[in-house]
Amino acid sequence: MSGASDARNGEGRGGLNQPRMPQGMLIAPAEEAGVAAAVAEAAAAGEPLAIEGRGTKRALLRPVQAARTLSLRNLSGITLYRPQELILSARAGTPLPEIEAALAEHGQQVIAEPPDLTGLFGATEPATIGGLVATNLSGPRRISAGAMRDHVMGIRAVNGLGEVFRSGGRVLKNVTGLDLCKLLTGAHGTLGVITEVTLKVLPATEAEGTVSVAVPDLETGVQALSAGLGSPYGVSGAALLPGPTPRALLRIEEFAEFVAYRCGRLREALGRFGEASLVEGEESRALWRRVRDAEALDAAPEEAIWRVSVQPSAGPGVAVAAGLDKALLDWGGGLVWLAGPATEAAHGRVMAAARAAGGSFTLFRAPEPLRAAVPVLPEEAPALAEIGRRVRAVMDPKGILNPGRMRAA
Amino acid sequence: MIDLPAPKPDVLARRAEILAGLQALLPGDGVITEPARVKPYETDGLSAYRQPPLAVVLPRTTEEVAAILRFCHRNGVRVIPRGAGTSLSGGALPLADAVVLGMMRLNRILEVDYANRLAVVEAGVTNLGITNHIAGDGFFYAPDPSSQLACMIGGNVGMNSGGAHCLKYGVTANNLLGLKAVTIEGEIFEVGGRHLDAAGYDWLGLLTGSEGQLAVVTEVTVRILHAPEGQRAMLAAFKGTEIAGAAVDAIIASGIIPVALEFMDKPCIHACEAFAHAGYPLDAEAMLIIEVEGSQQEQDMLLGKLKEICSRFDPISLKVAQTPEESLAIWKGRKGAFGAVGRISPDYLCMDGTIPTGELPHVLRRIGEMSTEYGLQVANVFHAGDGNLHPLIMFDANDAASFRKAEAFGADILKLCVEVGGCLTGEHGVGVEKRDLMPVQFTPFELDQMRALKAAFDPDWLLNPAKVFPIEGNPALRPAA
Predict the structure, then answer these.
(1) pLDDT for A122-135, tens place per residue?
(2) pTM of the model
(3) Which of A25, A26, A20, A24 is nearest to A7 (CA)?
(4) pLDDT tens across B100-146, in order?
(5) Are residues B221 and B116 located together in one domain of the fold?
(6) Which intervals hold domain FAD-binding PCMH-type (chain B) (predicted)?
(7) DSSP class of residue A196?
(8) By the CB < 8 Å criterion, does A187 face chain B?
(9) Predicted complex ipTM
(10) How far B33 CA sits from the closest chain A CA (Å)?
């Protein structure tokens, strides 16, 4: 498969670090049974599989060495939507915009506000719901309404031997058996191939408004966010835009009358941190899209991108300790997006900063050589690493599902 | 009746040696062996089942928990973790050859951090104890199971407890940041932390709701929230369950997600009214309690809209609280529902299935028919927003036939929940109570895979082994002859 390989290397050197082509032979079944058969066959042959939706996040985490790619792109479509029950099920390959459009018809939305990273990764297609669940990617609303993993009520998946299993269901409250929905969410396809997900959804709010506070520095900014998040007003977004005058942004999403009232109270309460102004309507929505999709990070195409999660008060310190001047803080200061040179030295500083703050990091976008050379996620403590090995031995005994994607073998 | 696995003969034979070993690890009063003092630990909230354990141990620190687990693992002794013993599914039911690991002495609130909106507490702190500790500063811990006065946060993690307000605030799993826990081998480990969404496998999510079968949680980092400016309730009573169900649909369709949306059927209304004199309408077939939050004006606006929606469904009664006292009066009957049912029946089983909310009228009709068939009364409380149904089946525990009938009735209800697209348990856990119904919801393969994951944490099946999964066919758990 030298053609695919050449394309990958070519893309890896410049642009947005995104390999354009799937690896090796592409298998793209349109039914779950086809997914199961493909995995069973790969397991029998001991052949690793690269698992992807539409491949929009190939530059995330470590490159997978596989001669076959199993794509879920053709396993697509909404299978159940009950607006009154706040439940939607879709096959894994369903593009997010298709789900969002169906929800919008009933005034509802995906709760976790997943980012659209097509710009960041230079992808030409939209992300799939299966990919967003497998990577547990959530947007600004995560701080008030939970992550993708919090709203996966049910899952269908295929394990590493090609066996189909379900966990959860299609109801909003369910503690029956082990919660494999959470185990698979964020496992990057290494414990099972997700074939269908059932999400809790919620009504989209009538209006939104953002209080924007001009703060002297990041520390003050996080204090302003903390004050807002510690208020009774239900702040649903709390980000800090970098710049000579950083801006602390606090969002209210509610009925229109509530937005006016709550933004007013927040402006009064936060005036002590800097000049507070109000951003409304479409302008507010555009602002939060830039935060959600990390566009406000303003990363150059050749730069690497990191995503660090720490306790909010440690956010500004991480940005400083990493020695990178491009930083965007979300989640009240606890989610730190960083951009800088795609070097092992820069990566080492980010890892050290995250570790010192007691947090977690992800090398989110980088050229393949760097991603292959460094730990892209924190190492696990020995007890957990051992449990992780045993869990993988249950779910994927042949080690064929996205091997090496999260950590080197 | 539910079978428990046969005790391990070698453990029973070495009882004295094992107790001496435990006493050496917990000098002082940390090991309980006298039958009279063991007695309170022989059952939990599912009091129809009783079994005295080998001993009860009450450690005070994570290190002591680790030492006990290491010892039990080395000696092949089964361990039953226990918080306050409020489980309604028998999650803390002992075994004759097991050590009950009581967590109530790990009861310190270690830290409250308002800037980062978190609290670090030991597993034996009560659910309400967290909120009481921070309420003076305007904060609270959101999940509020009805046993919150007594139940402990470690048990909440084990069962992934919910509550009446989880429609808005989520269940335990949605309100955790990190855990400190101990493996059966006695290794202390941490998952999550003080930050959101640690990269890597979601061990925090897997451990939550694992019913004490994977590890023993000793310390919990919870998210805390600032309380809203205020809250107020309203009551709406209707002529039929279908009509009340349609009103619930209309509320959700309006875009309003109330902080609580509780449904009671006629037998439940009657039981609660007789008990609490809350002014519930006795001629109603179904009643909703709806709670909203916000400033006074926001509450007025939401309650006005809700009143308008409910009035479209020909209500018998619509009562909007004007004051916090009137809200409490509306809640009074509902909060006393279990006690109220306890007054009209010597005993009751509290079931806990979840159904797609649209199936409610059908499910209530079927439950009514079964009630006649079994000759047992039932009252239904329902978290209408999220589909979690609590039928309270009344029986007489002194009459073995009555208990068997109640269990069979309960099992039929839960099978019905699965049949209409729901599940066996929404918030109480499987425990021993629903263990043998698991094949109704899961395929043999799905059960085997979950058993294998349990064994990945606990290869010898020592941690709370007789729960959740049918013991038949499990080589580690031979059924008692």
Answers:
(1) 999 999 999 999 99
(2) 0.96
(3) A20
(4) 999 999 999 999 999 999 999 999 999 999 999 999 999 999 999 98
(5) yes
(6) 49-227
(7) E
(8) yes
(9) 0.96
(10) 32
